[in-house]
Amino acid sequence: MSASERTKMIAGEWYTCIDDELEALRVIARDAVFEHNSLPPRPRGNIGPALSALLGSAGEGARIEAPFHCAYGFNIHLGAGAFLNAGCTILDTAPVRIGNRTLLGPNVQIYCAEHHKEAAGRQTGLEIARPVTIGDSAWIGGSAIILGGISIGDGAIVGAGAVVTRDVPDNTTVVGNPARAVKRG
User: Fold this and answer.
1) Please, is 8 exposed, middle or buried when counting C-beta atoms within 10 Å of its C-beta (0-12, 13-18, 19+)?
2) Beta sheet of 126-129, edge-to-edge order
3) H-type alpha helices, the chain
4) Is the pLDDT of residue 25 over 80?
5) At a CB cut-off of 8 Å and minimum separation 6, what does 107 contact?
6) Which of 6, 35, 51, 131 could be cross-linked to 94 through a Cys-Cys bond (beta carbons 3.0 to 4.6 Å apart)?
């Protein structure tokens, strides 16, 4: 018997995202995200109840501002004091780990899914999930895009609007498209 598409996704193998089980999981995430984005700030708290229950983990004081969007939720792990500003999107087909006290500016986008390079593969929904790890005390500027398979080190800074296509070492600042290291000044 062949593995389910969810099993292949979790294993980091090519899988078909056009799948009933994966769609059911995305519906659960959409409902949790809708609640989070619809609740008034005080009743919502740092993270809406359904979204909080769905996340892989969330450390003390982690906060997600509304609006927010994610694909599944269960692959997202937030460290203590992590802060995601309004408009963040995380397509968490693979684990996304955001470190303690790390700040994401508005409209930051994290894409774990990599689509097939051949048109025929894309038409059938073939993709592969690549994890993203962001260390402690990092700062991701507004509208930055982080692609799957990327690690961003402790204390790193990603400039606003940067497109991160390569790993970023600890205490390094990157800017631009594609993101390149610059000296801190």
Assistant:
1) middle
2) 15-16, 126-129, 113-115
3) 5-10, 20-38, 41-44, 49-54, 119-123
4) yes
5) 85, 86, 87, 88, 89, 142, 143
6) 131
One-letter identity of residue 35 = E
Q: Which amino acid, 36? A: H
Catalytic residues: 115
Q: How many residues does the chain have?
A: 185
As a whole number of angstroms, the distance between CA 128 and CA 167 comes to 18
Question: Token match 């694909």: residue?
Answer: 71
Q: What is the pLDDT of residue 9?
A: 97
How far apart are alpha carbons 46 and 60 in whole angstroms?
A: 10
Structure tokens at 141: 């500027």
